[in-house]
Design a protein that fits this description.
The complex is a heterodimer of chains A (147) and B (340). Chain A has 147 residues and is of the alpha+beta class. In chain A, 24% of the residues lie in helices and 37% in strands. The longest helix of chain A has 32 residues. Chain B is built from 14 helices and two strands, in the order ααβαααααααβααααα. In chain B, 27% of the residues are buried. The chains are: A alpha+beta (147), B mainly alpha (340). The structure holds FE2/S2 (inorganic) cluster.
């Protein structure tokens, strides 16, 4: 039906295609901005050294849980001296607790078990517990973490 | 004579509505086994009504959420009853959805031209589960807090879109009060809107594509009044059952969320028990991939069915076997998780 030379229908097609593309871009831009609005602001965190106690204090008990700037950790005397373990389970982020009798870290969420050196020995955890660096200055003990 | 014709053309609103919803319903739908689609719809209405009521008292802020749920449960007049109905209707809704899906699956009612019904239905099913999860989170007890933590981290482990999705849902790198507000918005606004759209779509699809045809030739009856009455009867029966269930099992509330300690007895609701047990016993990556692959196969099963049928497999039998083993696995994992 002479479509090839039909300028009217071509013009119609072009203009609606143009409209569609424009609408798509417009809505897409809106959608993107909406998503940006929803995505939370990332706060820059810097490493800081935070005083957790003196050598004397920390030698009294062998496991000390504490919370510093949102990080939950546990100071524990291991074979290699004092270690600051993160209590965040390396599986799906539950909180491990120290079982003194068994000398193991236990995660109740999916029965993850770590030994006294933080090594994952049973259950789903894929890697050993994270550690924070410990800095000793004279009598004082500091933990280096992002705050 | 003329007067009668006039009467016919000037139908009352009631008749117009009846005409609009009227449809011939195949006789196999007289059996309850085939009516399990309307049941979750009735339950959804109850859940929606009681849910809206509770938003008048609930406070979506981490320091007050738990106390407000507690107040609903024990201080506000009939609060326990409303919350109980909400919980019972949701539990029954998910249970009957399971049954409905199982029925559609073993009778292969998703066959062409019914694929769209199945796809929308799967969307409905997953949205309902998301409602279950977000709803549980709002209580802000131990199960809520650690459930949120674990589920968000699971989302983060998913390939590609996982990390941004988890970040968006949590509103940060960790579960915080922003997370609670986001889940509240999802639970009370976005997900219900989606659910209503999907329910509408599902019903329209069923009407346009027609009810599934069973093999044997059979009679038909009218949607109104016969079938509508039947659904009404189911609704009344459900209300009686629900009220009794609430009386016998009034809603309880766990310990308040404590970010500094995981209680040893954090167990998800029964419909997540099987998945929970699965991620506990299987190594992490295979476990999550298993869930993804299972969901994909589940969602696109009509196409898999067609593909295999063309290659000469008798899918009726195969579906029966898959259905039976799925129930068995689900039951074993669930019981294993609840008992041990
Ligand atoms: S979160 Fe600790 S074992 Fe899964």
């Amino acid at each position: 039906m002479g479509v090839i030379n039909d300028d009217v229908s071509r013009r119609k097609f072009l203009s609606s295609a143009f409209m569609a593309v424009g609408l798509g871009f417009g809505l897409g831009a809106f959608g993107l901005r909406f998503l940006q609005f929803l995505s939370p602001k990332v706060k820059e965190k810097r490493f800081e050294e935070i005083l957790v106690g003196t050598v004397n204090e920390l030698s009294k008990s062998d496991a000390m849980p504490m919370e510093i700037a949102g990080s939950k950790l546990l100071l524990l005397k291991t074979d290699a001296g004092l270690v600051a373990f993160s209590r965040k389970c390396t599986d799906l982020g539950c909180l491990v607790s120290w079982d003194k009798a068994r000398q193991q870290f236990i995660c109740p969420c999916h029965q993850g078990v770590y030994d006294r050196n933080g090594k994952n020995i049973a259950g789903p955890p894929p890697r050993p517990l994270d550690r924070f660096q410990i800095v000793t200055k004279g009598e004082n003990i500091y933990v280096r973490l992002k705050a | 004579m003329e007067a009668t014709i006039e009467k016919i053309s000037e139908k009352s609103i009631k008749d117009k509505i009846i005409d609009f919803i009227q449809e011939e319903v195949p006789d196999h739908m007289n059996s309850f086994f085939y009516c399990m689609g309307a049941t979750p719809l009735v339950l959804f209405m109850v859940a929606a009504a009681t849910g809206v009521l509770m938003t008048f008292y609930y406070i979506p802020y981490s320091e007050k959420a738990y106390a407000s749920v507690k107040a609903i449960n024990s201080e506000i007049y009939l609060g326990w009853f409303i919350r109980g109905l909400h919980k019972v209707s949701v539990n029954l809704m998910i249970f009957t959805l399971f049954l409905h899906i199982l029925r559609v699956f073993i009778t292969r009612a998703y066959k062409a031209p019914g694929e769209l019904k199945w796809l929308i239905g799967i969307g409905l099913f997953f949205t309902t589960l998301a409602m279950g999860f977000t709803g549980y989170s709002l209580v802000y007890d131990q199960v809520s807090y650690w459930g949120m933590t674990v589920v968000m981290n699971m989302a983060e482990e998913m390939p590609l879109f996982g990390p941004p999705l988890a970040y968006l849902l949590r509103g940060g790198a960790d579960v915080s009060e922003i997370t609670l507000l986001r889940l509240y918005d999802l639970h009370t606004k976005l997900l219900p809107m989606l659910l209503i759209l999907l329910i509408g779509g599902h019903i329209i699809a069923v009407r346009v594509l027609g009810f599934a045809k069973m093999e044997e030739a059979e009679g038909k009856h009218l949607f109104y009044p016969e079938h509508a009455m039947k659904v009404g009867l189911i609704a009344v029966g459900l209300l009686i059952v629900m009220v009794n269930l609430v009386m016998i099992f009034p809603p309880t509330i766990g310990q308040m969320a404590n970010p500094a300690e995981v209680a040893s007895n954090v167990a998800p609701p029964w419909y997540f028990s099987a998945v929970y047990k699965w991620i506990t016993i299987a190594p992490r990556q295979p476990a999550l991939f298993g869930i993804l692959i299972f969901s994909a196969v589940f969602a696109f099963y009509p196409y898999i069915d067609r593909f295999l049928t063309q290659r000469g497999f008798t899918m009726g039998r195969i579906n029966m076997a898959i259905g039976a083993s799925a129930i068995l696995t689900f039951a074993i994992l669930t019981l294993w998780n609840i008992i041990l």
